[in-house]
Design brief:
The chain is α/β, with parallel strands linked by helices and about 270 residues long. It is built from 11 helices and 8 strands. It has an 8-stranded parallel beta barrel with strand order 1-2-3-4-5-6-7-8, surrounded by 7 helices. Helix 4 runs parallel beside helix 5, helix 5 packs across helix 6 and helix 8 runs parallel beside helix 9. The structure holds 3-methyl-2-oxobutanoic acid.
Length: about 270
């Protein structure tokens, strides 16, 4: 039973208190009003308006094409659907790398125009200036280390990161730095479980894993994967709770058959 279920609004303080109390944090993505309402009503702690919208909503192969305006559109739709969850929004590719003033402008637009509660961005030391500038404006920032999909063309593949000692050492260093400068949380994507545990023990802020094992402070999944809408994606870390692709397809097939046979609408379904 959750000690934090009755919390009216999840804040960065709630998340830290959850880590300190040893209670796991639940995080899921959402990109629209209707899904956000369901996920929030179910009691999720954090909703991520992920740039994975580029894949699952827009059908792009990578997260790179999605724009700041599109992220704001998704985020404002999500914010209108929630009552309790903390809403964090991905800064899209190109909006924060290499220019901390541009990063702050992008983060301010997200906060002002969507009503979200914080932003997430990918990377460690190389984006430190951007993170510090955003934090200095009072905007909560979440880090993201390990597999960082905005750098897919640098990595070349979506395989597990930081298996080698050098990369693992750098990840630990980056995590320590992100926590020290004031990030309220760090997403750890596709890294060995032992490294997920090490980072979690090292940093003060909560760690949220996706393919980072069970000894992190919370877990995140893309909602379309969890409910089985994205049927061709089968990473080891994914647990599917529904096969909605088949359910929706079946419902649509039944509807088409009913329309063709004139079974729909029947007498009770008309005026
Ligand atoms: O964009 C996204 O959905 C993410 C999660 C995979 C953590 O960043």
């Amino acid at each position: 039973m959750s000690k934090f279920k009755e919390v009216k609004r999840v804040t960065t303080h709630t998340m830290k208190a959850m880590k300190d109390a040893g209670e796991k944090i639940g995080m899921l993505t959402a990109y629209d009003f209707s899904m956000a309402r369901i996920v929030d009503d179910a009691g999720i702690d954090i909703i991520l308006v992920g740039d994975s919208a580029s894949n699952v909503m827009a059908g792009h192969e990578t997260t790179l094409p999605i724009t700041l305006d599109q992220m704001i559109y998704h985020a404002s739709s999500v914010v209108r659907g929630i009552k309790r969850a903390f809403v964090v929004v991905d800064l899209p590719f190109g909006s924060y790398q290499g220019d901390s003033k541009a990063a702050l402008r992008a983060a301010i637009r997200i906060m002002k125009e969507s009503g979200a509660h914080g932003v997430k961005l990918e990377g460690g030391e190389e984006v430190r200036d951007s993170i510090e500038r955003i934090l200095s404006a009072g905007i909560p920032v979440m880090g993201h280390l390990g597999l960082t999909p905005q750098s897919i063309y640098k990595f070349g593949t979506y395989t597990v990161r930081a298996k080698e000692e050098e990369e693992a050492k750098q990840l630990l260093k980056d995590a320590k730095m992100l926590s020290k400068i004031g990030c309220f949380g760090i997403v750890l994507e596709k890294i060995p479980a032992v490294l997920g545990k090490q980072v979690t023990e090292l940093v003060k802020c909560p760690t949220i894993g996706i393919g980072a094992g069970n000894e992190v402070d919370g877990q995140v999944l893309v909602i379309h994967d969890l409910i089985g809408i994205s049927k061709d994606f089968h990473p080891r870390f994914l647990r599917r709770y529904l096969d909605l692709y088949a359910e929706i397809k079946g419902a649509v097939e039944s509807y088409i058959a009913d329309v063709k046979s004139t079974d729909f609408p029947n007498e009770k379904e008309q005026y």
